[in-house]
Write a structure and sequence with these properties.
Strand content: 5-15%
Number of domains: 3
Low-confidence stretches: 438-444
Bound molecules: zinc ion
Number of strands: 9
Structural class: alpha+beta
Length: 444
């Protein structure tokens, strides 16, 4: 992660240099890089530029003092009240060995606005062994804030950035992400203009951010999905020192992009129902309906956060999804729309077994349709509560005989995890019994 952040800093410096010298960025090489730090002028003349990117030009005028800037930086970084100057903390004062490049020179102790992740990732450094940097490394890490993204979620901060060995891909991603930043809110990631986009936790937020990112650059990433393949996305979140961390690699980003492209297409092709615009339709009518219960909004989103985590990891947590649907059924809340489109397209994009999902889901749906209008719907709860695979299959066999049906149970027996098979089956039943799609079909 430290190398990844450094690469961002180097790119940010290359951009500053290219603009100052009016030269193409490709001419920026390592000797140019070194030459910038022969004296202190480059740092002195340019140190507000990364700040302008991070906090927005409106918040970092040329006249503004460090005190005001630090006040704003403290919204996102842990900075001690003893720190009152920025420039002084970028120029080494005492001799030491740079923790990053190993140079013996004048070094500075790391500050959160230089490398913000020192304390957040335990493996990097212990309390007794703080990071120190030479002038060049300190300013390079510091400059990476130009492509560091942030969002406040309650009392937590979420920070993330991209990395790639492919400078073009990295620059493009950085540029594309800028459209999601809000200049009126310290360049934080936008709230996406609608209450249904309100997020409470880091993983669900990350999922929405990636969705918006792909949606805004749909044609580009359709044609250049290989650019995503070379990227890595690093995110941290939390408050004080309790920081969580996730890395999303390029192949996952590429598959997520495929998935989002598919459901945007499905939204455009689906029947015209009121609600969000066609591009948002499948994602949000599914996603917003994963909120459960009548508690505080943040409590209602807890299971959705758990489910979002699995999606970012390249998996579908069917068991959590089933928990959400069961709970919503119990509360008489509306079930998510576009269930099958969402799940099927995800499985397809991630090369997961979509056929067996379809078989079990279809089986559940078929049973659910037959249960409609009978008093057998309490079987849903009996199946849900089944403690072991035998109890589960017994309830299922009992149900089918009460319905007078012959059902092929092989897909369930073939599925490697019976609890997951049970979850998929139950979701199919619930969608047939209580889903709104069915109502639409009957109306037509
Ligand atoms: Zn160094």
């Amino acid at each position: 992660m430290i190398d990844a952040y450094y690469r961002n800093g180097k790119l940010s410096i290359a951009k500053i240099w290219a603009l100052n010298e009016n030269k193409p960025i490709k001419e920026f090489d390592d000797s140019t890089f070194d030459s910038l730090f022969k004296d202190d002028n480059f740092i002195k003349n340019n140190y507000k530029k990364p700040l302008k990117r991070f906090l927005g030009s409106a918040n970092v005028s040329d006249e503004i003092g460090d005190k005001e800037i630090l006040k704003n930086l403290k919204r996102y970084f842990e900075i001690s009240s003893k720190t009152t100057k920025i420039l002084e903390n970028l120029n080494g004062k005492s001799k030491g060995v740079c923790s990053y490049c190993g140079a013996i020179s004048e070094v500075v102790t790391n500050k959160a606005f230089i490398f913000p992740f020192e304390r957040k990732i335990n493996s990097i450094v212990g309390d007794s062994n703080r990071l120190v940097f030479c002038k060049k490394c300190a300013f390079t890490f510091y400059s990476a804030m130009a492509s560091l993204y942030k969002k406040k979620l309650g009392d937590q901060n979420m920070l993330f950035f991209f990395d790639s060995y492919d400078v073009d891909a990295l620059e493009k991603a950085t540029e594309n992400m800028r459209h999601l930043q809000d200049p009126n809110r310290y360049m934080e990631i936008k709230n996406f203009d609608h209450p249904r986009y309100t997020m409470f936790y880091p993983y669900e937020t990350m999922l929405v951010v990636i969705f918006q990112f792909i949606k805004n650059n749909l044609n580009y990433y359709k044609a250049e999905s290989k650019h995503l393949g070379s990227l890595n996305l690093y995110m941290t979140y939390g408050r004080d020192q309790l920081y969580g961390y996730m890395q999303i690699d390029g192949s996952t980003l590429q598959k997520l992009s495929d998935f989002f492209i598919k459901i945007i297409k499905a939204g455009r092709e689906s029947e015209n129902i009121s609600g969000p615009n066609p591009d948002d339709r499948v994602f949000f009518l599914f996603f917003e309906n994963l909120l459960v219960g009548k508690g505080k909004p943040s409590e209602r989103a807890m299971l959705r956060e758990k489910f979002s985590y699995s999606l970012l990891k390249g998996k579908i947590d069917f068991i959590t999804l089933n928990e959400i649907l069961m709970e919503k059924t119990k509360n008489g809340e509306k079930l998510p729309l576009y269930y099958s489109e969402f799940i099927y397209n995800y499985l397809e994009a991630f090369n997961l077994d979509k056929d067996i999902f379809q078989q079990i889901n279809g089986l559940g749906y078929k049973l659910g349709l037959q249960m409609k209008g009978t008093n057998l719907d309490n079987y849903i709860w009996e199946i849900f509560r089944a403690r072991g695979v035998e109890q589960f299959l017994n309830s299922l066999v009992e149900l089918q005989s009460r319905l007078g049906l012959e059902v092929d149970l092989r897909p369930i027996n073939d599925y490697e995890n019976w609890k997951e098979a049970k979850a998929i089956l139950l979701n199919g039943m619930l969608n047939a019994l209580y889903g709104r799609r069915k109502e639409n079909e009957q109306r037509n």
